[in-house]
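Re: beginner question about structure tokens

> Can someone show what the tokenized structure looks like for a real chain? I only ever see the sequence side.

Sure, here's an example I had lying around. Input first:
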Amino acid sequence: MGKKCGRCSTRYCGPACQKQHWDGGHKDICKKIKKTGGAEQYNANNKYSEAVAVAAEKCADDTKGQTCFICTQALHWKTKEGLVRGCSCRGTAGFAHVSCLAEQAKILVAEAEENNLGEKVWRERWARWHTCSLCKQDYHSAVRGALGWACWKTYLGRPERDSARMSAMTQLGNGLTESHQHVGALSVKEAQLATLRRVGASGDILLVVQANLAMTYQQLGRLEDASRMQRDVYSGWLKLHGKEDHRTLRAANNYAWGLINLRRFETARTLLRKMTPVARCTLGDDNSLTLVMRWAYARALFQDTDATLDDLREAETTLEETTRTAGRFLGCAHPDTRGIEKSLRDARAALRARETADDLAARFGGL
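And the corresponding structure tokens:
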């Protein structure tokens, strides 16, 4: 181990590194770091505060004149932070402070741990770190990013093998991804995978982390790396839990999107024709994962330069149905709804262009 600060225990690779850090400003915050509980905790607290401010600012237009459904106040009594809403709630529902959402999740998880309520209850309560208790949909964008930091700063002091700490690292990585901080997400997810391999984590946990890492590879343009890992994750879940397990279905969806990004449309369609009916039967047509799988299938049809006229018509019909369902279930402002609507416009444009080309070919081909 290298040298460490005698006051706050921040570690350094050597004396020169420590002196450079001290002269660069560490001396001004050393006492604060010690009081907070260490450099990692200090950094997490600061990142959390920054993320909350960003989330509140991005939600300001939507939350104007509203109050928190938890504390019933417009401004948080302690932090003075503004409101957010990053789920699928509509109307006057779902407005909250990130601090209130985090405190609620923290209390629920603590009760499950203290009273030994079992893994099923623990997981249900843990979901409050990323899922709205009202609409039951995942938080997204900057709100998910702020909750990721909230979760990580809550549990980072626990031992490496602690399940809450491992899950908190997952929440942080996913939160950074949702808030489009992909370089930071890569660092978190690679560190998490290395840690879990070192402590001998179960196959299920490793598959979850690999799936999250593959998503970040994709966002950073490392498409081949992403596709290989997505294929392995899908195969892993299929072998461990079968095709009807929601984790297998999610992995199939991720693998299909990776194939589409690589323009391997036929392979993507073959996979989705096999797994989308399973999702519709198991999860229902209104489930967000089912919607995204149908969206992926339509894109694998109309984006293919070898698509037939029937393929393009099938893509349009699929996207029309999916757009209506997503609007009812997720809301018109949800990122997935907007993405599906855009794909519908693109599919219609591709279909019209093909029909025009075929008409011209038929008209002039006979001259």
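Each token stands for a local structural state, so reading them left to right follows the chain. The mean pLDDT is 91.
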